[in-house]
């Protein structure tokens, strides 16, 4: 494919947010071609999102940033194109899809895109229905976007970009919030459309197993935002594995030599209940979200909540954290009804990390954000300093400590939101997708830290789409489907329930997929 004219040509291209800062994209020279599928890899904070925002012409203007070197689109400096042309030809689905929406309802958002493209009204309905069918959201056409689950929002963002018929499509962690089957279907769908419409595709993703078979190229960045590798995937993963993993880049598991920890479930035999839910019903307006939900979590459990997008996982977590109230039923925490807990006391005993980290930030700097909870807990200045330093080091945020939390990369924001919860030793820690958007190193650091807290007695409950984490760390797993718990037991027994897994849109972990593959050879 390299004999074609490149669609993008970067020559010693650099970008920085501030004149005095080190560039976030650093002296990058590479070419990207139409019809090619390229994986853009790099540790969290290595400049991947920033580079793609330069490619679609949003940066430097949008942030008053500074560039040097050349960035050509179809042979011409990108800044010489009218904005409308670039926006239409180069589609981008942002890491945080919420930042992308202009309208309230799904249908209106998509119609707005078509209006901007001057598509006649009579054609709109058909095109909107078609694109919603592609992303599997047909029944959500009339819904309020802000009332959709994280994964559903990501699908709306993709639908709106597909409507534009882009010549080049950039996807920034498109499957991070999707359930395992939706993720696989999404990749297959995108590749099918890419082959039909023959656009170039650039994908940023930390979990690349399912993309790898379709990729023609990989471009990897190091922590300084420089090109680390530019090769075919085969060449890169076979011959430069060490270089990639040393730079904290996740490689496909079949190339990896990583041993995931395996915690025998017999380690956990507590019978003492920490959270008990009985006959819970929860509605948003007239729509029933959770129904007749009864279960308990045992003290010391390391428990995952899994299930398809929109099943009600985040809603359940928010109920336990007393952020929302059930219509009927009761929730007890440490043998006391949640309604009797005073907020101050409750949150000394319970930590909660939101699905969207930005919902949590209240301070101007990373340092203050981490300090805030520690100071409230009454630690001395020296102790506070020491604890902040440890947390920032463990979460790879030390060099970002004076940054505004909102200016961090997606993965850094996620780590900060988690770090702010880990200073105290609450009885219960609730995490909503704590590891999404993390590279190999930061995921294992986080899990190690949480495992340590669990060993010291904290009960852990986390929502995740990562079955390998469930397999390696959890003694218990709850599977949700359409507002109900359809499984409550060990991960090991769950992996044998093929029908249930399929209905709940889950996949078995990689370890077992590998065994199954070997058995069929
Ligand atoms: N504020 C809201 N108003 C109305 N409906 C809502 C609201 N928030 C969520 N919902 C709906 O409740 C259902 C459950 O959403 P929830 O976020 O709990 O799902 P989830 O299992 O966490 O999904 P995901 O894996 O995609 O994050 C979804 O159908 C969603 O559309
Ligand atoms: N608006 C901003 N202002 C200042 N610095 C920023 C801004 N956005 C990003 N940065 C910094 O630029 C660097 C690169 O960020 P970027 O979002 O491009 O990383 P990334 O490789 O996409 O990371 P992740 O995998 O965590 O999403 C980070 O150090 C980040 O803190």
Automatic annotation (TrEMBL):
Annotated membrane topology: Peripheral membrane protein
Its Gene Ontology cellular component terms are: ATP-binding cassette (ABC) transporter complex
**Residues of the ABC transporter domain:** 8-249, 275-507
Main subcellular location of this protein, as a coarse class: membrane
Alphabetical list of InterPro entries matching this protein: AAA+_ATPase, ABC_transporter-like_ATP-bd, ABC_transporter-like_CS, ABC_transpr_CbiO/EcfA_su, ECF_ABC_transporter_ATP-bd, P-loop_NTPase
The similarity annotation says: Belongs to the ABC transporter superfamily.
Protein name, per record: ABC transporter ATP-binding protein
Q: Give the organism's phylogenetic lineage.
A: Bacteria, Bacillati, Bacillota, Bacilli, Bacillales
């Amino acid at each position: 494919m390299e004999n074609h004219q490149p669609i993008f040509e970067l020559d010693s291209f650099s970008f920085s947010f501030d004149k005095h800062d080190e560039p976030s994209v650093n002296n990058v020279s590479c070419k990207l071609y139409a019809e090619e599928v390229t994986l853009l890899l790099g540790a969290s904070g290595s400049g991947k999102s920033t580079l793609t925002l330069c490619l679609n012409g949003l940066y430097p203007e949008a942030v008053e940033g500074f560039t040097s070197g050349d960035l050509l689109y179809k042979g011409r400096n990108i800044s010489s194109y009218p904005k409308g042309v670039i926006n239409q030809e180069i589609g981008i689905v942002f890491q945080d899809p919420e930042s992308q929406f202009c309208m309230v309802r799904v249908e209106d958002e998509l119609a707005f895109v078509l209006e901007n493209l001057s598509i006649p009204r009579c054609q709109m309905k058909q095109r909107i229905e078609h694109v919603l069918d592609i992303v599997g959201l047909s029944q959500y056409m009339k819904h309020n976007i802000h009332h959709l689950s994280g994964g559903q929002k990501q699908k709306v963002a993709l639908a709106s970009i597909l409507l534009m018929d882009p010549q080049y499509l950039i996807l920034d962690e498109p499957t991070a919030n999707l359930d395992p089957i939706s993720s696989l279907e999404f990749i297959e769908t995108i590749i099918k459309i890419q082959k039909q419409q023959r656009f170039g595709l650039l994908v940023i993703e930390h979990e690349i197993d399912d993309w790898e078979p379709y990729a023609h190229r990989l471009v990897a960045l190091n922590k300084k935002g420089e090109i680390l590798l530019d090769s075919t995937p085969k060449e890169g993963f076979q011959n430069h594995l060490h270089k990639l993993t040393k730079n904290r880049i996740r490689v496909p598991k079949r190339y990896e030599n990583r041993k995931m920890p395996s915690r025998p479930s017999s380690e956990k035999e507590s019978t003492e209940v920490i959270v008990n839910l009985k006959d819970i019903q929860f509605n948003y307006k007239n729509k029933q979200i959770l129904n007749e939900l009864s279960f308990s979590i045992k003290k010391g459990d390391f428990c995952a909540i899994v299930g398809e997008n929109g099943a009600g996982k985040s809603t359940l977590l928010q109920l336990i954290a007393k952020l929302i109230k059930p219509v009927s039923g009761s929730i007890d925490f440490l043998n006391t009804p949640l309604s009797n807990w005073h907020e101050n006391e409750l949150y000394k005993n319970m930590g909660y990390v939101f699905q969207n980290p930005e919902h949590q930030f209240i301070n101007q700097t990373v340092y203050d954000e981490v300090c805030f909870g520690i100071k409230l807990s009454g630690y001395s200045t020296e102790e506070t300093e020491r604890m902040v330093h440890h947390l920032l080091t463990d979460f790879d945020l030390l060099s970002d400590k004076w940054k505004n939390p909102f200016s961090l990369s997606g993965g850094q924001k996620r780590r900060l939101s988690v770090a702010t919860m880990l200073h105290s030793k609450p009885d219960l820690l609730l995490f909503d997708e704590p590891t999404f958007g993390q590279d190999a190193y930061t995921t294992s650091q986080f899990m190690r830290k949480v495992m340590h807290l669990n060993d010291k007695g904290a009960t852990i409950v986390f929502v995740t789409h990562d079955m390998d984490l469930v397999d390696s760390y959890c003694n218990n797993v709850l599977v949700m489907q359409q507002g109900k718990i359809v499984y409550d037991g060990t991960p090991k027994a769950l992996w044998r329930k093929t029908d249930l897994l399929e209905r709940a849109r889950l996949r078995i972990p990689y370890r077992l997929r590998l065994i199954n593959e070997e058995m069929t050879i």
